Amino acid sequence: MNGGTDTCLLHCFVMPLAAPPKDTYPAAISHVHEGSPAYSAGVRAGWELLRVNGEAVTDVLAYRRELERGDVMLLARDPLTEEEVTFTASWEDPGLEFSEVIFDGLKLCANKCEFCYVHQMPKGFRKSLYVMDDDFRTSFLYGSFVTLTNLSERDIERILDENLSPLYVSVHTANEDLRRDMMKWWRLKVKDPQATRIRGMLERLAPIDLYTQMVLLPGRNDGVHLDETLEHLASYDNIQAVACVPVGLTDHRRNLPELRPYTPDEARDVLRRVHAFQKRMLQERGTRFIFASDEFYLLADEPLPRGDAYEGFPMLENGVGMIQDFLGDALPLLPTRLERPRKVILGTGKLFAPVLERAVAPLREIEGLTLEVRALKNRTFGEVTTVAGLLAGRDFLTQIEPGEADLLLVSPNVLKYGTETMLDERTLDDLRLGLKMNVEVGGTNLAELAQAVLTGVGEMHLPQFGFSTHAVKEAGRQH
Ligand code: SF4
């Protein structure tokens, strides 16, 4: 939340020690803006928001909705001293920022999908990586995909009443029996059996814009099932786009249904169907509507579509158009030689390495620059995992020799959002120490990468995606 600047000394008063009401969802306050009503009332970071207008608030959306009423009374508490403060704000921002956007606990999924990434993660990572978030509120706020199977009637009404649009929905298939078989929901966790019927849910959410995805499993929901699902989804005006991505697998599948990756021929069949449907949709709707993830093109060894064929990259987070987006900006003017010779390693996953190799070819002309694209095996999840974003610190430490280069550049997508920490809690400093070389982030496009190669200074702005962890992103992709 952004804080307001108005002071509000007259609005607040301090209450003596009192137990908080039972029906609250204490919202941890991470920051209080100076000069705001909350600040003037004595509320500080570390306190909790308990109530707004006498009501418990479940999430930041409900909080904002209360603020829209104009005059609000807020109750906050210091959890250490249990001091409580009530203060008011009138058509102004109270000045609070929160650690989390959901106050009453994330809504977890009610499924046991045979392709779930969380179920095939190695043990030992931080707990948050195993959280099976399936919350429509984070879908609206951050664009994470939800299955809808855990919704209650009240949730659906809230989505419609508050116009939580757009939402991001994992459809996988419009064939109800096949969807149930692929997703295997837990009967006791499903609040409303109607919510498991994807066709009915798409009908109910007709006023809401939807971006949808299909995780494709070879021989399962592709082929004619893919055609039929696309046909069905295209019959809704509110469905904006469909992304299809291949199933992601690790070497840690234990006691799970047998699944295998796509063969090049199978990937080509998916692309053939996608392209045929795109052609038709361009004529009928003026949009390609369906987009295949980059991974399908790389698996099929087929050329990627041009950048403009992604129509503004609406499904970038699904890996749809990431490569063209990365290659998009022109290279800066390159020098003919470096003042001081330098060896630079670009550490990436096996899937992206050949593309990067071709993209950085012009830099190889620079005298004094030794540039190597290092295709790292993923020893954390297993070699079947080839995307760069799932490389952990240990993958760099075990496949690059200490001191063998002056600079290592890594993708920002290997870092936990907004931090310098990787999947296995190792940091960029750990890599610098272990590899005895400078380690920087290579930026989010080719121009930034070239700049980092030339200057040795990385682009430390945040990863372009709003996922909190790679696995959460990956799990989100799999929903
Ligand atoms: S893929 Fe997503 S919806 Fe399915 S079981 Fe895993 S976390 Fe739940």
- How large is the count of helical segments? 15
Order of helices and strands: EEHEHEEEHHEHHEHEHEHHEHEHEHEHH
The level of helicity is: 25-40%
Distance between the termini: 29 Å
Structural class given helices, strands, pairing? alpha/beta
CATH class (first level) name of the largest domain: Alpha Beta
Uncertain ranges: 1-21, 462-476
Strand content: 15-25%
**What's the CATH architecture of the largest domain?**
Alpha-Beta Barrel
Radius of gyration: 25 Å
Largest beta sheet: strand ordering: 1-5-4-3-2-6
Shape category: globular
The whole-number mean of residue pLDDT values reads 89
CATH topology of the largest domain: TIM Barrel
User: Could you tell me the number of beta strands?
Assistant: 14
The largest sheet, given as strand count, sense and whether it forms a barrel, is:
6 strands, antiparallel
Number of domains in the coordinates? 3
Q: Give the bound compounds.
A: iron/sulfur cluster
Describe the overall structure.
The protein has 3 domains: 87 residues, Pdz3 Domain, CATH 2.30.42; 203 residues, TIM Barrel (Alpha-Beta Barrel); 127 residues, no CATH class. Helix 7 runs parallel beside helix 8 and helix 8 packs across helix 9. The protein has 479 residues and is an alpha/beta fold. Helix 11 links the parallel strand 11 and strand 12. It has 15 helices and 14 strands. It starts with 12 loop residues before the first strand and ends with a helix. The strands form 3 sheets. Strands 1-5-4-3-2-6 form a 6-stranded antiparallel beta sheet. A 4-stranded parallel beta sheet has the order 7-8-9-10. Strands 12-11-13-14 form a 4-stranded parallel beta sheet, with helices on both faces. The protein is globular, with a radius of gyration of 25 Å. The structure holds iron/sulfur cluster. The site of iron/sulfur cluster has 12 residues, from helix 15.
